[in-house]
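Sequence only, no structure available. Ideas?
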Amino acid sequence: MTEEVYWHQGEIDRLQREKRAGHKSFVMWFTGLSASGKSTLAIALEKELFHRGHQVMVLDGDNVRHGLCSDLGFSPEDRRENLRRIGEAAKLFLESGTIVLAAFVSPYRADREQVRSMMPHGDFVEAYCQCDIDVCSQRDPKGLYAKAIKGEISNFTGISAPYEEPLRPEVTLSSGTESVADGVKRLIALLE
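Reply:
I predicted one. Tokens follow.
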């Protein structure tokens, strides 16, 4: 950070924004293997919260890589930087009074914990989409598992790169067997 860069404090704070929105802001971080249901659950939860009158935004792994992180690959270093950038963006949304639903494979515990540490205590909710790799591979809407197994994709989580399961997520969703509707109901109950 250079000496010429200063934080410019606004006059409207997070509490004022949350009061106007009518709810507390937080970051719910969906993690799990590719095709484990992260984006599907985040989008379904977004719809439910939106219809309840909440200010909510989904940050999705593929979507973010089209813009903010389009210059990054999938090496451990690039994945770390990808999540750092997303964490900074999520923190800005959090300050705006928005509920953030972040759906990212985020395979390394240390990287997820780094993002958690960026948020005020209690404002980061880790939602683990636990799904057997065979189910993920069968779903495989993008054909990524087949390509990774053939060696056409390197550093693919679960095949040629590791996935470190969360040790103490705030919620574990059995996304391989539990319906999306039931998962959303459980998440709403947790949030209430």
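Strands lie at 27-31, 56-60, 99-103, 124-129, 171-173.
Hope that gets you unstuck.
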